[in-house]
Amino acid sequence: MNQNSSLMAEIEGTVSGHRDGHGFVVCDDGKPDIYLPSNEMRAVLHKDRVKVRIVRQDRKGRPEGRVTEIVERSNAPIIGRLLQESGIWLVAPEDKRYGQDVLVPKSGIGAAKAGQVVVVELTEPPALYGQPVGRVKEVLGEIDDPGMEIEIAVRKYSVPHVFSDAALAQARTLPDHVRSSDHHQRVDLRDVPLVTIDGEDARDFDDAVYCEPAKVGRGKGYRLLVAIADVSHYVQTGSAIDVDAYDRATSVYFPRRVIPMLPEKLSNGLCSLNPGVERLCMVCDMLVTAKGDVHAYQFYPAVMFSHARLTYTEVAAILSNTRGPEAQHRKGVVPHLLHLHEVYRALLAARQVRGAVDFETTETQIVCDEAGRIEKIVPRTRNEAHKLIEEAMLAANVCSADFIGQGKHVGLFRVHEGPTPEKLDTLRNYLKAMGVMQGISDKPHPREFQAIAAATKDRPEAQQIHSMLLRSMQQAIYTPENNGHFGLAFEAYTHFTSPIRRYPDLLVHRVIKAILLSQRYQLPALPTPGEAHAKLSKRLASRVKPPSDKPVKKPSVDTLAWQAAGLHCSANERRADEASRDVEAWLKCKYMREHLGEQFSGVVTSATSFGLFVTLDAMYVEGLVHITELGGEYFRFDEARQELRGERTGIRYALGSRVDVQVSRVDLDGRRIDFRLVTDGELALPRKAGAKSSPSKDKPTGAGAARSRKPRAAASGKPSKSSKAKATDRPAKTSGAKVKKPRR
Q1: Do residues 613 and 741 both lie within one domain?
Q2: Quick one: which of 81, 144, 642, 721 is 20 to 30 A from 496 by CA?
Q3: Residue 630: what pLDDT?
Q4: Is a pLDDT exceeding 90 seen at residue 460?
Q5: Does 88 share its domain with 67?
Q6: 491 by DSSP, 3-state: which?
Q7: Percentages helix, strand, coil for the chain, rounded to the nearest 5?
Q8: Distance from C-alpha of 260 to C-alpha of 154, rounded to nearest angstrom
Q9: Last residue of a domain, one of 369, 401, 433
Q10: CATH value at residue 662
């Protein structure tokens, strides 16, 4: 197809609005997004489905489109604040991707009052010369009401947060405790001192563990039991509870509130492995060698009795001092905890031999008061107990993946693929620019990443190098196609250990039970995929390998059903993460409004063409120092080095650079925090738009040395989450932001 015919072709996709007023069409075929200028966005809204025709390339080289047809209007509700301006009622959308306010006739206001947060549904779509019109469907309350940020997020991201009447009715029919009839064909483990080890604030307990020395072959080893709540015994396929659980796909965790996947009677009661009560479980019973290799394993349903509910802090204290007060209080389980620690050390040694990626990153926890306001943000440290449980769960997950593979049954694997060629090239260029001698092959092994991390751990730029290694990796997904787990260096991996809060784990339990009974588990008819599913499907389409000469086997109906389930669970996992990040960003903005004008020290966590993202040392909050606030000279973005460099002074700002900043602006609606750079105790001199200085010789990397003058208002940018996900399963994404003029 020549260029003219490609320009004439119509392309179908979904509109993705931008807070600056323009937008993009996310193409159904996985091709690059098509840019829509602001005039093309007048008649459409975020999430509408449209057909577009490419009319030109814009100045950035992006395909620019013109909307030729509106295929389907989005029926998603819009959340915003009800305002009255010059006698006209309107709703200003909280999600700035909706670029237009919604007009509301007086008859459509209902009981809502000016300033309140409301949910509005459209009665008239936008037009080229007319704004959208709607009516108030629900009043959420005042903007400063406790928990308002969560009420907004669950609706903004369409997170199911109310169980159906049928699911609640079914939950009421479930027993309050394990009945004697439930013991049938189960191994009795009630005398085995299994214990749960979780955080202090945990309310549901998926897993319990036990370890004892055992002879493996002719050598020393361990018998490790990982008992997981048997949710599948109570949640039958296609039942009302199962339908709701599939719709949610995962529990969603917010500060001070959890939206569970299962009704509370199950999640905190009947399925939770609470201490001192009988519970049904599925057990992965493993023999582990002294070198940390799983020599043999078996799965079976059992009935158990948790002998103690332990916390990570408590177990870490016992392991560090077996004669301390914590150990004295838990004398009965101390020997078993020491055996657990021994098998953990063996599993950890095997992990190192395997070459799994293991970067130490800082995760944070938001501590709120009773009113839901942030009291403090603290680092969440991983101690020996955290790592002990993690390795035990990894071992059980690997065994479950192997069991499904050996049983030749379709199931959901947790797949984490290596870097894309594009990300690999970017990483190579960066490492070369940083003088890192270790190379990366075209088909890298995680051991290569771990070797680079180890070789650079003592360098001043270690944090920045490790961050780039993380960013080069892809996100993990659920799929029936086993392509291994790159970060963990496993040939096969799945999720078995959290069926209370993750639907894929529940499916894995059902498959394992079916294999044990020499049966096949059949997925029910699945609901119509939602928007999140469609978006992920398009994103994954771009990963499809080029066609080869070998004939491609058409997937079976069963495989297609599992593919749809994997896409659904993966997309809803992303949705839960986005909703959680949105709430955290809201809370951090409210928190930082109390610190306007104050100065803090921090570290550059991302460098972009439009500025620097800086995370404050004391508060673990990230904000943007716009490029116009870096001083009175012209800065260029060096993509290879991931840094901004001044052309006149040669001063550089890169990942890991130490800086001092002042909190200059907080935009709660936009979830944005802006900083100004402080140098030598004074604010940096901002450069005039378009100013450019002549380049000079390079100078050593520093935090900035421009002289200060009266600062101007900071430009705005988009904050991103300061805590980074673990490299093993959900690599951190590069922070993204766009600059926007203030909206009225």
Answers
A1: yes
A2: 721
A3: 87
A4: no
A5: no
A6: coil
A7: 30, 30, 45
A8: 13
A9: 401
A10: 2.40.50.140
For residue 576, being part of any structural domain is answered with no
Residue 410 has phi, psi (to 5 degrees) of: -70, 140
Contact 209, 226 (CB under 8 A): yes
pTM metric for this prediction: 0.85
| Shared-domain flag, residues 267 and 304 | yes
Residue 550: inside a domain? no
**3-state SS, residue 510:** helix
Burial class of residue 535, CB neighbours in 10 A (0-12, 13-18, 19+): middle
The DSSP annotation for 692-719 comes to -PPP-------S--PPP----PPPP---
Contact 122/87 with Cβ under 8 angstroms?
no
Segments in 355-433 forming alpha helices (H): 384-406, 421-433
**Residue 337 has which token pair?**
């905890």
Residues 337, 459, single domain; the answer is: no
Q: How far is residue 526's CA from residue 524's CA, in Å, rounded to a whole number?
A: 6
Which SS3 state, helix, strand or coil, does residue 427 take? helix
- Beta partners for residue 281, in sequence order: 229, 302
DSSP 265: I
Out of 401, 423, 452, pick the residue that ends a domain: 401
Regarding whether 480 and 367 lie in a shared domain, the answer is no
Q: Tokens standing for 442?
A: 């075209």
* The two structure tokens encoding residue 116: 């309140």
Number of structural domains the chain divides into: 5
Q: Is pLDDT at 172 greater than 90 in this prediction?
A: yes
HSE of 366, CA atoms in CB hemisphere, 13 A: 26
| Cα-Cα end-to-end distance for the chain | 45
| Residue numbers of the domain that contains 224 | 177-401
pLDDT digits (tens, 9 = 90+) for 508-532: 999 999 999 999 999 876 555 555 4
- CATH number of the domain residue 123 falls in: 2.40.50
Q: Which residue has the tokens 């966590």?
A: 605
